[in-house]
């Protein structure tokens, strides 16, 4: 490993991006709401070291140009990396589905049995039901988007 460069410059671009985003999130407070056709789709509340992402209409995730859908293990790997980075920066990300807690990642995550699946203590499944429904909502949104293209 090249020790002559600063530690941050040795990180892969994805990790650098997440680190930069984490620093920005810690310094910003407020709420952002995204509406599509006068309907609230998603809101993000920034409260210091706590970020709350409330997904009211997951179909917005199906509107991405990419047809690539990540698999379960790739998704877990990405979530694990995100959770570890958030924890190291002292940030907690709570993901809600229609106002109900689904997942927590980062500093305040207190996993129980989910550690067996995720292999990390930085991801907490708050509600298996809400995580399942959120996953189904995203999948259904992708199907609807493909039909309209």
Distance between the termini: 47 Å
Poorly predicted ranges (pLDDT <50, ≥5 residues)? none
Number of structural domains: 1
Order of helices and strands: HEEEHEEHEH
Q: What is the count of helical runs? A: 4
Rg (C-alpha, Å): 17 Å
Helix percent reads 25-40%
Biggest sheet statistics: 6 strands, mixed
Number of strands: 6
Shape: globular
Give the helix/strand class: alpha+beta
Oligomer: single chain
Q: What is the residue-averaged pLDDT?
A: 80
Strands of the widest sheet, in order across it, are 1-2-3-4-5-6
Q: Approximately what portion of the residues adopt beta-strand conformation?
A: 25-35%
Key attributes of the depicted protein:
single chain, 149 residues, alpha+beta, six-stranded mixed sheet, 26% strand
Write a structural description:
The chain is of the alpha+beta class and 149 residues long. The chain has one domain. The chain is 39% helix and 26% strand. It has helices spanning 13-27, 72-88, 114-118, 128-148; strands spanning 29-36, 39-47, 50-55, 92-97, 100-106, 123-125. Strands 1-2-3-4-5-6 form a 6-stranded mixed sheet. β1 and β2 (39-47) form a beta hairpin. It is globular and about 40 Å long. The model has no long low-confidence stretch (mean pLDDT 80).
């Amino acid at each position: 490993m090249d020790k002559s460069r600063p530690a941050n410059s040795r990180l892969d671009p994805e990790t650098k991006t997440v680190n930069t985003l984490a620093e920005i999130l810690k310094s910003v407070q407020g709420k952002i709401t995204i509406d599509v056709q006068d309907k609230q789709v998603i809101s993000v509340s920034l409260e210091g070291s706590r970020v709350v992402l409330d997904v009211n209409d997951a179909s917005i995730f199906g509107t991405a140009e990419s047809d690539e859908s990540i698999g379960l293990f790739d998704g877990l790997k990405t979530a694990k990396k995100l959770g570890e980075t958030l924890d190291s920066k002292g940030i907690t990300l709570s993901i809600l589905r229609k106002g109900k807690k689904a997942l927590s990642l980062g500093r305040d995550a207190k996993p129980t049995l989910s550690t067996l699946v995720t292999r990390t203590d930085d991801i907490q499944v708050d509600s298996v039901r809400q995580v399942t429904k959120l996953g189904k909502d995203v999948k259904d949104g992708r199907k609807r988007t493909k039909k309209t293209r």
